[in-house]
Amino acid sequence: MKKLVLALAVMLVAGVGKASANNPVEVNKRVVNAFYAEFNHAKNVSWNECSRYIVAEFSLDNKIMYAYYKPDGSFVGIIHHMLSTDLPDNLRNSLKKKYGSFWVTELFRVENEQGTFYYANLENGTESVLLNSDEYNVWNTYKVTPNSEKESASF
Questions:
Q1: Which of 47, 73, 143, 147 could staple 130 via S-S, CB 3.0–4.6 A?
Q2: CA separation (Å) from 102 to 15, 115, 130?
Q3: How many domains does one find in the chain?
Q4: Position 152 in a domain
Q5: d(CA 77, CA 96)
Q6: Quick one: which H or E segment has residue 25?
């Protein structure tokens, strides 16, 4: 299940969840009923299919969220972006201490049956780092990618 959570998080970082406005889909009643049973106050709901999941993008309490479901209507998890000030203290302090020279390009929380996990995409001039928290709210490095050097134009 940890791999599933990580896959959902990576899909969100890659922008898959943002494609729903461009690709409206027909959603079966089981998924719709499961969604509205949990999120009956959701507004601006749009649907998308990605990989093996059906994704509801919606707003709730002035936050944009993504709820993931299997086609049978079973809930997989919910993801939403957040500010670094909303992180638990130990995660926020750890980011400042270890990655003070990086800026946060994306930060979101994943909630599912296994608990709540956080993902941070960080960058500096030379690399991008994707971190994920574990069940103890400690950051783990998931992926480090060197930034491509910008090509200089020659005249």
A1: 143
A2: 21, 27, 12
A3: 2
A4: no
A5: 28
A6: none
Query: What size, in residues, is the chain?
Result: 155
pLDDT in tens, 18-34: 444 455 678 999 999 99
Phi, psi for residue 39 in degrees, rounded to 5: -125, 60
Q: Which CATH number goes with the domain that contains 23? A: 3.10.450.360
In a domain, 108, yes or no: yes
Q: Which residues contact 72 (CB under 8 A, 6 or more apart)?
A: 30
CA dist., res. 133 & res. 141, Å (int): 9
Tell me which residue range forms the domain holding 110: 84-146
The span from the CA of 35 to the CA of 78, in Å, is 11
Segment 122-129 long-range contacts (CB within 8 Å, at least 24 positions apart): 122/95, 123/147, 129/99, 129/102
Q: Is residue 155 part of a domain?
A: no
> How far is it, in rounded angstroms, from Cα 115 to Cα 99?
25
pLDDT in tens, 45-73: 999 998 889 999 999 999 999 999 999 99
Signed CA dihedral, 11, 17, 18, 21: sign only = positive
